[in-house]
Amino acid sequence: MKQTRLPRHLTACATVAIMFAASTTPGHADEAEADAAELAKKLANPIAALISVPLQYNYDQNFGPEDDGSISRLNIQPVIPASLNDDWNLITRVILPLVDQNDIPVRGQGESGLGDAVASLFFSPKAPTSNGWIWGAGPVFLLPTATDDALGGEKWGLGPTAVALKQTGPWTVGALGNHIWSVAGDSDRADVNATFVQPFLSYITPTKTTFGISTESTYDWETRSWSVPANATVSQLLKVGPQILQVSVGAKYWVDAPDNGPEGWGIRAQLTFLFPK
C-alpha cells in the first residue's frame, strides 16, 4: 500500500487552538453570540460583504505514470467587497497559488514558485431575491503570473463566472461556476478552454463549527478530461486577541482525474483571517 508522503515544506499554514473568554453582561454576551453567528453564516457565502484572507493548503499525490509525483499548493485567496450603490456590491475574489511539485513530470524533477492567478468579479445585489436566493455574476480572468513555465500555462484568459446560493437556518446550499478561454499568450502553449463547477453544502452548529462538503470539478474541453476532487471539511470560528479567525481541516478524494493526474486521497487545511466592519 502506498503511504502518504509529507511535502518538503509547509510554510504558511498555522494551527490555532486558543480561545479567549471575556466576562460580559448578558446583553453583551447575546450581542457577541449574534455577531459570531452572522460571521459564520457569511463565511459560508462566497460573495458575502466581508473582507477575508483565506490561506488554503492542499496536498495531492500519485501523479505521473508510476504514481511518484506530489504537489503542495498554498492558495492565497483574498476576498474584497465594495459597495457600488444602495442596491449592489462588487465582490473581488483572487486565487494566487504558491506551488511546490515533486517528481513531476518524472521522478527527480520538480519546481517551486508562483502559479497562475485567477481573479473573479461578482456583481451581486445586496438583498436576496423574494425566494431567499443570493446570487452574483461577472467576469473571471486568468493571469499568467507563474514564475516557471512548468507551473503555469503562459496564457491570458477570460470568461464568465456566476454563483447562486440559499441560506436557511444553519444550512447553506449553492454552486459556483466559471468558464475560461485563453485569449492571448505564448502560441506554443496549449490553449485554455475549461469549465469549472463547484456545488457546495454546509451546516453551522450553535458552537460556530461548520461542516462542509463540495466538489471542484473542471472539464478541459481541449483534452476532453475531467478533474473531480470531492472535499469534506470541518471549520471552527475563533478569536485570538483582537483577531477573528476560522480554522479548517479536511480531506479530499479524487473521483476522476486526467491521465498521470492525482489519485486517491489528499489533504486540505485552511486558515482564514476575517476583517468585519
Which key phrases capture this entry?
Porin, mainly beta, 15-stranded antiparallel beta sheet, 277 residues
Q: What would you note in describing this structure?
A:
The chain is mainly beta and 277 residues long. It has one domain: monomeric porin ompg (Porin). It is built from one helix and 15 strands, in the order αβββββββββββββββ. It has one helix spanning 26-43; strands spanning 51-63, 69-76, 79-83, 88-102, 110-114, 117-125, 133-143, 155-168, 171-185, 193-204, 209-215, 217-220, 225-240, 243-256, 265-275. It has a 15-stranded antiparallel sheet that branches. β14 (243-256) and β15 (265-275) form a beta hairpin. The longest helix is centred in the first third of the chain and has 18 residues, at 26-43. It is globular and about 60 Å long. 24% of the residues are buried.
Write the SSE topology.
Elements: H1 26-43, E1 51-63, E2 69-76, E3 79-83, E4 88-102, E5 110-114, E6 117-125, E7 133-143, E8 155-168, E9 171-185, E10 193-204, E11 209-215, E12 217-220, E13 225-240, E14 243-256, E15 265-275
